[in-house]
Design brief:
heterodimer, A: 7-stranded mixed β-sheet, 4-stranded antiparallel β-sheet, B: 115 residues, mainly beta, 6-stranded mixed β-sheet, 5-stranded antiparallel β-sheet, 0% helix
Chain lengths: 115, 115
């Protein structure tokens, strides 16, 4: 049973470009969380999605950031017009039911570098 | 919203000694407290968790205690080994009675175990 997959593992973008980060949850999991980890800091919640629904996006910046989890295919975190401050590791996690108390399994992360 | 404080930020111990990491949380509605271990450049991995109806949980050399009244929980690692060296994150989650399980993380403790 494959774990949570993320791609790309490393992504370099110039200021003003778009970044697309993909996350495939574990088989049988339909709940996906995205977290951002700045260097030397903890993980900060960004958004929680179920298939075709955004449940909680309270941790996501209002501008330039968006997320989706279509019926088919991976969840995508999209950052438009990237700035240097967006450089971070972005982790997604999946769980079977989305309830508090469910273990969240993390992917390997995408390390975004904005030049 | 929930806020999780974690101390110390760095911890250095001799191999064989014990290590203790402490976290406090602000929202008394939090009821799930996982601990994650993250090695350099790797994904966070769950090492132990505790729910609010339990005061203590052990798994071999690792134990977690929870004091709901004081709103703090601690990770205890006994007989530390060099491979325990990593960054450890505590987290808290609130169950709103539905599907909501995003984690609020502490800022991490960098544990170094010296041989």
């Amino acid at each position: 049973n494959a774990g949570v997959m993320q791609n790309p593992r490393h992504l370099v973008r110039r200021r003003g470009q778009e970044a697309r980060l993909r996350c495939s949850p574990m088989k049988g999991h339909s709940h996906v969380y995205w977290y951002r980890q700045l260097p030397e800091e903890g993980l900060k919640f960004m958004v929680y999605l179920q298939k075709e629904n955004i449940i909680d996006e309270s941790g996501m910046p209002k501008e330039r950031f968006s997320a989706e989890f279509p019926k088919e295919g991976p969840s995508i975190l999209r950052i438009q017009q990237v700035v240097r401050g967006d450089s971070a590791a972005y982790f997604c996690a999946s769980s079977p039911s989305g309830r508090a108390g469910d273990e969240q399994f993390f992917g390997p992360g995408t390390r975004l570098t904005v030049l | 919203g929930e806020n999780v404080e974690q101390h110390p930020s760095t911890l250095s111990v001799q191999e064989g000694d014990s290590a203790v990491i402490k976290c406090t949380y602000s929202d008394s509605a939090s009821n799930y407290f996982p601990w994650y271990k993250q090695e350099l450049g790797k994904r966070p991995q769950l090492i132990i968790d505790i729910r609010s109806n339990v005061g203590e949980k052990k798994d071999q050399r690792i134990a977690v205690t929870l004091n709901k009244t004081a709103k703090h929980f601690s990770l205890h690692i006994t007989e530390t080994q060099p491979e325990d060296s990593a960054v450890y994150f505590c987290a808290a989650s609130i169950d709103y009675g539905g599907s909501q399980g995003n984690l609020i993380f502490g800022k991490g403790t960098k544990l170094s175990v010296k041989p």
